[in-house]
Design brief:
Layout lengths: L2 E6 L6 H13 L9 H7 L12 E6 L1 H7 L2 H14 L5 H12 L6 H11 L6 E3 L1
Parallel strand pairs: 1-2, 2-3
Helix pairs in contact: 4-5
Length: 129
């Protein structure tokens, strides 16, 4: 039987809140399910609260609200923070992505999270409602 985890999109007001919301959806209050995209991808592999057999799905309710909260403005904020920590050989790439986000172009954090959730789970296990 498929286990469905509900992401309440109306609670997502930014990236940090997204990590809280998805952690609680999977593991209850105070739960953890990644705090960055790589950790999220790792958590999808099982053993972090999801069934080891991979029989689970995410239902992202009010995803449009989350898409706005995780849009270009929040993406630019995240990339500004990343730029200060980026390896010198990566700074030009991060700066280019930041410039794109500031111009309202390129993938947003919402797009990147959806891609991880879609790629990291079996097809059809991300329901946007």
């Amino acid at each position: 039987m498929t286990v469905t985890y509900v992401i309440e999109g109306s609670r997502v007001t930014g990236l940090e809140q997204f990590w809280t919301v998805i952690g609680e959806a999977v593991n209850g209050p105070g739960g953890y399910f990644g705090r960055n995209l790589d950790a999220l991808a790792d958590c999808l592999g099982g053993g972090m609260g999801t069934p080891d057999n991979g029989d689970f799905a995410f239902e992202w309710r009010d995803h449009a609200s989350s898409a706005r909260a995780l849009g270009h403005e929040e993406t630019a904020r995240y990339l500004r923070q990343s730029l200060s920590r980026a390896h010198p050989t990566n700074r030009a790439s991060v700066q280019q992505r930041l410039d794109e986000a500031l111009a309202g172009r390129g993938p947003t954090l919402f797009d990147l999270i959806v891609a991880v959730l879609s790629d990291g789970a079996t097809p059809g296990t991300l329901l946007l409602s």
